[in-house]
Structures are given as structure tokens and as C-alpha cells.
Amino acid sequence: MRPEQGTLAAFMLRLLTGYAVVFNLRHNRSGHLFQNRYKSIVCEEDPYLLELVRYIHLNPIRAGMVESLEDMVRHPWCGHAELLGKSNRNLITQEPILAFFSRHKSQARRLYRAFLADGLKGKRSGKLSRGGKRLSMALNPALSEKDVFDDRILGGGRFVENILDAKGEAAQDATLSLIDLVRLVSTHFGLEPEELSLPSKARKIVRAKAVICYLAVRRLRIKGVEVAKQLGYSSTAVTHAATRGELIFSETPDLGEKLGMAKV
């Protein structure tokens, strides 16, 4: 998946929202039609793309919609049949995927099917609906703790840095220390810095911590372990908070001005 997938995500969000509105009006109902909003992640092609392909095409079996790989050939809501040459609806581009297995289509299809069968045996069957450090390292043992990670990106190291640079999230503000960041954000939210190092579910503190996680990890390239220690969080909590913090920061332009950080 490419960086421009962000545009696709916005389009899909509008499409699904519009469809849900029309469906509800037509059937005299209200509420959510889809459980979660459409989302996409940026994927480093090797070795992550094939794992995503397997994850997507095995979902109908794991969800109980079909019973086996043989039944998957007749399942109309995925591209499995097309990859096997059993359908010609032209909904997907086959060649880039099959090329990972072999230059010859017949052999590529056999290897692709075997690859899916291995997935049913439990090989690499983790949930691939997000990126981040833990999953990226699990799929690519060559990565290390020193690499840069992002929960919106399935990959690590230089690939993540290039994506963030292209998106305008380069570490141009790296001169700001974590201590200074905590002090400035706590002042903005009317808090004392010490309050942000203690466990609390108070809304103002939770929001302030989320902004710090976003700015520290994604904009200042401070290690998540250091942020976790400063805020009394686990590394996983820092990752989740950073996602919330991005939205909060985008809705707080005056904070960006105080910190000298533009909204991205």
C-alpha cells in the first residue's frame, strides 16, 4: 500500500458514510451500519505485503463465512478466485502478487495457495489491521529496537522515516527535549508537570498525555520507552495515546503556535 492511500481512506470514508445514510433512510432505521470506519495502513512491500494478502484472504474462513480454501473459490467478496485464475471480474491486479511466488503463473498460483494453507495452520496469523513496532518486528526479524516505528505503518527503520518525511512529519523540532515538551503542554492545559507522571483518568490529563505522546514519538523522534517512563505509561499505551494525540493536536492550533510546531 502506498502513501497516497490516505486519499483513498478519505474517499472510502465519504462513500461508506453516504451509503449508511441512504440505507438507514430506505429501511427506516438509525445508527451505525458498519462497525468501524474504513482505514488503511502504509505497507513496506517486502516482507509485509504477502502477509497482508494472506490475512485478507483468510478472513472469510476465520470469520466462519466459508469453511475451507476450496469454498473460498466460490466466495464472491474477495480476490482469492481471481488470483487462482478461477474468476475474471478484473477487481484486482494479479500480476504484482503472483510475481512474489514465481514468474510462471501456474506455479505462482500453486505456491500462493500453499502459502494460504500455511496460514490456516497458524503460521503468521497475527492481526494485521495496524502497523507499529511489535508487529513489524515480528514479521521482520532484521529490525531492531533502534529502528523508527509508527502504528500507522507496517514496516520499520528507514522506510518509516521516508514515509514520515514525505508526509511532513520529519523531526524538524528535535531540539525540544521531552522535559520541555511536558512543561509546555502541561502549562497549556492548566496542569502541573508532576500531574502527568501519575496514573489518572481525568479528561484533561489524559488529553495532555496523548498530545505529548504524539509530539514526542512522531514529531520529535523520542523513544517510546522514554516517553512511557516519563508519563507512567506502558510502551503500548504510548503508541495508542499518540494516535489520539494527533487528533487533539490538530484541533488545538494555538498549542502548535506556542511550541513552534505546525499542524500536519
Global Rg: 22 Å
Termini gap: 21 Å
Q: What kind of sheet is the major sheet?
A: 2 strands, parallel
* DSSP strand content: under 5%
Which descriptor suits the 3D outline?
Answer: globular
* Strand line-up across the major sheet: 1-2
What is the total tally of β strands?
A: 2
Query: Would you tell me the structural class of the helices and strands?
Result: mainly alpha
* Average pLDDT rating: 79
Range of helix content: 40-55%
Structural topology:
Layout: H1 5-26, E1 42-43, H2 45-62, H3 69-72, H4 80-83, H5 95-98, H6 105-120, H7 133-139, E2 153-154, H8 158-167, H9 178-188, H10 203-219, H11 224-231, H12 235-250, H13 253-259
Parallel strand pairs: 1-2
Write a concise synopsis of the structure shown.
This protein is mostly helical and 264 residues long.
Keywords:
mainly alpha; two-stranded parallel ribbon; globular; disordered N terminus; 264 residues; single chain
